[in-house]
Structure formats: C-alpha cells, structure tokens
Amino acid sequence: MKLYWSPQTRSSTVLWMLEETGLACERVLVDIRSGAQRADWYRAINPMLKVPALVDGEATMAETAAICAYLADVAPQANLAPAIGDPARGRYLHYLVFATACIEPAIAQIFTKMEIPSGSAGWGSAERVFDVLDGELRKGPWILGDRFSAADVMIGSGLHFCVAAFKLVPPRPSFTAYLDRCYARPAWQRAQAIDAAGV
After folding, report:
1. Burial class, 136, CB count within 10 angstroms (exposed 0-12 / middle 13-18 / buried 19+)
2. How many CA atoms lie within 13 Å of 61's alpha carbon, on the beta-carbon side?
C-alpha cells in the first residue's frame, strides 16, 4: 500500500486514518510546491493532480473520503465503519461524505465571500452546514454517538481546518469539545507529527 501525499494538505486526514487503522503503508512524498503532481507518472495515479492518492495492489484511488472509506473497509479489525446491513451505516456514509460535499464548499463560500442562492448550492449555505454540524455534535461524543468512525476522521479534519487552522468559522462549544476529543486521540497526534516532519 502506498500513500501519495504532501504535508499541510488534505493528506493529513488520510495520515490520521492510517494511524487509526494500524495498516502499514509506504508514504511517497509528492512535492506539490515544485509542481511534481503535474508529472506524467502522477497524472496516471490521479488525473486531478491533487493529493492524497492511495495505491493498494491493483486498487488506485483519490478523493479523501473514498480513501478513508476504503481503509475502514480493508481494516475491519479497527472497527471504523459499521458493517453493510447495520442501520448505522447510512448515517456513517452520510457524514463521511458530508465533509467534502458540504464542509469544504462552505469553507470556499466563506473564504471567497461567494454569493449563491442556498437553493442552488449543493451544500445549501455555509450557515446551514455549520448549524447542522453544531446540532449533530451536541449529541456526541462522536458522529455515531459513542462509536468513533472514519466519519469522525473526515468531520474532525474538516472542522480542524476551518475552525482551528484557518479560523474561517467561529468556534462553538460543540465544535471545541469535539475537536478536543479528536486531538486527544493518539492516532491524531501521531499523524500530526508525521505531517509536521514532512517525511
């Protein structure tokens, strides 16, 4: 298994997920600041020219949520995804994808001050996205209640970037408490150390 990554990018989410699973994975640094992602060899892995990407034998994928879903499924011993047939799997998939389908566009809307009718935006509105998250995270401690999952890796990473790292979204008590729980996880701490070291 190989992770194609670059520090201080969405790759940090997959680093966290890998640490949660305990799976062995070779990290291949892609220097996006020098444009290495535009090389033909990398274009064959991810034609979107973005990191992260994951190659596991014959399986090749990009998109952070897809990678996290894949890792949860290939590491069932880590108990990071409800099984197919478990009613909790619907909520799990919903919030696994919510991070990229709603949180990221909401961040872009805030950052660019983009005006778009909420009925036309797939995410509704930035305000709605964070109000919904606030309501869900008040139920806690995790998005599936007492069970931590790959959906928390995605939601936790998204909130970290918009609330703590870039300060685009004002903190709310539910966000702060949730992020504190994420930050206390040893896997989060190991992933952050790898990301900071950049190797």
Report:
1. middle
2. 14
- C-alpha distances in Å from residue 177, one per residue of 38, 64, 108: 40, 24, 24
> pLDDT over 70 for what percent of the chain?
98
Geometric angle at alpha carbon 169, from 51 and 177, rounded to 5°: 95
- Report in angstroms the alpha-carbon separations of 61 from 87, 151, 178: 27, 18, 29
Q: Which CATH number fits domain 2-79+188-197: 3.40.630.30, 3.40.50.300, 3.40.30.10, 3.40.640.10?
A: 3.40.30.10
H helix or E strand, kind and range, residue 155: helix 150-159
Instruction: Evaluate the CA torsion angle 33, 65, 68, 169 in order and state its sign.
Output: positive
Give pLDDT tens digits for 163-180.
Answer: 999 999 999 999 999 999
The correct answer on CATH 1.20.1050.10 for the domain covering 88-185 is yes
Q: Give the mean model confidence (pLDDT) for residues 128-132.
A: 95
Average pLDDT value for the chain: 95
CATH 3.40.30.10, the chain: domain bounds: 2-79+188-197
SS3 (DSSP) at 24: coil
- Asked whether residue 51 carries a pLDDT value surpassing 70, the answer given is yes
